[in-house]
Design a protein that fits this description.
216 residues, alpha+beta, OB fold (Dihydrolipoamide Acetyltransferase, E2P)
Amino acid sequence: PDVIIEAQFDDNDAEHGQDHLQDTLTDDIKKLSLDTSEKGKTAGVTGVHRKKQDDGPKVNDPRLLPDEFLQRTAKVVCILEKKHSRAATGFIKLLADRNSELFKRCAMFSPVDHRVPRVYVPLADCPPDFVAKPEAYSQMLFICRIVDWKEDSNFASGQLCKSLGQAGEIEPESEGILTEYGVDFSDFSSEVLACLPQNLPWVIPPGELAKRRDLR
């Protein structure tokens, strides 16, 4: 019968040249011919065609299989601690499908951080003239906070918190980063400021210098 012989070619074959590869193919063909003739004799005597057994184990219960035959899977059942602030910096734009009901109610928020999903935000949170002039806000940074993500939706649901300003400027970009990481950058309260020395200019008291190591 017509037989296709596959041979692996590696660095050893390259070192020994084409003759080594030719010898390997010749040996494989001879071995296959002998195996075929032996099987033909056996089939002619017994009249029985034996089916080759599979190498894999025949086990109906997966718990009885060895570990190397198992693909471990898992399912998330609970979030114990939320590491992300659920706030993100990004841009808003109109939905692509203008004929859908969702177009009349929501806009699309695209985060700058691509690890955060895109978010549906209510049009009520957007600027009043956003629908009429969406291009005017194409480079305007906004802060959005994710509030929900339904199992049957490709996008999360959120609310626009505030407009930061023009993208690329230092202050809006810095405020967006601080908000995403949950850093409180608001002004100190009067109670905190009262803890600071009131008599200015303030100097380190000699008693403190005597019991501390000076690292200045």
